[in-house]
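Supplementary Methods. Inverse-folding protocol.

Structures were first reduced to a discrete structure-token string of length 431. This string, shown here, constituted the complete conditioning input.
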């Protein structure tokens, strides 16, 4: 993360004992700075109205899908969760995620032959975290990646325009959560902030599994799992074959994707995800979203559904998005009656071979939680993902309040989050 290294180097003279993130936290949470803020009272209770009623934000549904698709084709960094067929389906149907706004950047006028050069769906800080301060936050795309789309030919102009649009909407900061920290988009924001004497502020980060799909699959799997584990997986596969020939099927056409999606939804609803209340078919809106999104993406060759079968019985299925040279492993569903035979691992091993054999795919993002017990041992690459605060004005004391509120929220919620992930990991180890 070069932008973090530059920040760390500049701070060494006065604060060499502090890490990059901790140094910012000390400044953000300074009580004296908060007391000196003359607009502190005005921010609370008014920020939501300032961000939603001044007409500066564009409804996401108003962005023309064809212009959006052209931007996605030219994006400097891929993000399957901000493709129009995915994001617009979420905006129309998904539980708690509808009716979001867009920060959109155009080259030229916003009519006629104008070119869309930047886009990020956003919500207010109040809607995202119930924090009543004037900031915009990248909208949750029902996947754990909110990297904005920037035109590769005009990335700097796009980033500057997005920040200006956020400022005009009344925001003092733009929070890009679940950002790819080492990618071209983050570098672009750091580069355009530097001449303005501004710097991105890292709020939190983690590493998650990814796949280098340019490698030979068998060599990669042997390096990751070792001979003993691979032998055990072959034994389990032979046990699965007692139910019938084991097959790995890939649905790509809209018709095949629609049929395979129903298989996935049935598997997902049969297991622990349904017990937790997170299976997609448990909510009418979520079910409508995934059916529309999968169909729309399949029309553009951007969605695959893979199914592992033992004879005619589906034992595991997964949804995979594709954008440019990257795949995104969205969700996995398994038949828990076969849990002892590791159906989720079996499918992921086959998916690894499938992606490595595809010359169009260079990497695959697991979009999984950090330390995920199933995917981490198989996909040994790591992506740095984090929440980044982009200040929109120089020497703005409100940014200190926003950063302090975000850090406080993290410290309050972190123990509960870890407990939930521990329980989920125990459940997922069975598959």
């Amino acid at each position: 993360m070069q932008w973090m290294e530059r920040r760390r180097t500049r701070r060494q003279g006065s604060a060499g004992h502090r890490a990059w993130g901790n140094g910012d936290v000390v400044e953000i949470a300074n009580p004296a700075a908060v007391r000196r803020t003359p607009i502190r009272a005005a921010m609370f209770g008014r920020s939501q109205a300032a961000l939603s009623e001044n007409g500066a934000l564009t409804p996401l549904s108003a962005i023309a899908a064809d212009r959006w698709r052209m931007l996605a084709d030219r994006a400097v960094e891929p993000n399957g969760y901000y493709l129009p067929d995915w994001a617009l389906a979420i905006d129309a149907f998904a539980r708690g995620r509808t009716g979001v706004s867009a920060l959109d950047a155009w080259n030229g006028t916003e009519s006629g032959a104008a070119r869309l050069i930047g886009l990020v769906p956003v919500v207010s800080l109040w809607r995202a975290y119930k924090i009543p301060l004037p900031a915009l936050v990248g909208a949750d795309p029902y996947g754990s990646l909110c990297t904005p789309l920037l035109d590769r030919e005009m990335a700097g102009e796009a980033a500057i325009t997005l920040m200006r649009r956020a400022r005009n909407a009344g925001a003092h900061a733009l929070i890009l959560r679940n950002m790819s920290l080492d990618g071209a988009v983050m570098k672009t924001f750091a580069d355009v902030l530097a001449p303005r004497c501004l710097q991105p502020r890292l709020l939190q980060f983690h590493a998650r599994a990814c796949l280098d799909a340019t490698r030979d699959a068998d060599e990669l799997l042997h390096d990751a799992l070792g001979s003993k584990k691979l032998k055990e997986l072959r034994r389990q596969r032979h046990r699965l074959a007692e139910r019938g020939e084991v097959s790995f099927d890939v649905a790509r056409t809209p018709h095949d994707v629609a049929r395979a999606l129903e298989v996935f939804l049935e598997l997902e609803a049969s297991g622990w995800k349904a017990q937790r209340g997170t299976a997609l078919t448990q909510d009418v809106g979520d079910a409508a979203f995934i059916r529309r999104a999968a169909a729309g993406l399949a029309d553009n060759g951007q969605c695959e559904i893979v199914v592992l079968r033992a004879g005619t019985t589906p034992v595991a299925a997964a949804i995979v998005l594709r954008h440019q040279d990257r795949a995104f492993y969205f969700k996995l569903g398994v038949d828990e009656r076969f849990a002892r035979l590791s159906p989720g691992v079996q499918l992921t091993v086959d998916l690894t071979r499938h992606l490595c054999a595809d010359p169009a795919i260079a990497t695959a993002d697991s979009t999984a939680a950090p330390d995920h017990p199933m995917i981490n041992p198989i996909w040994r690459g790591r992506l740095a993902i984090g929440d980044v605060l982009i200040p929109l004005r120089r020497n703005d004391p409100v940014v200190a309040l926003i950063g302090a509120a975000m850090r406080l929220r993290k410290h309050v919620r972190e123990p509960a989050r870890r407990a939930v992930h521990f329980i989920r990991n125990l459940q997922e180890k069975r598959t």
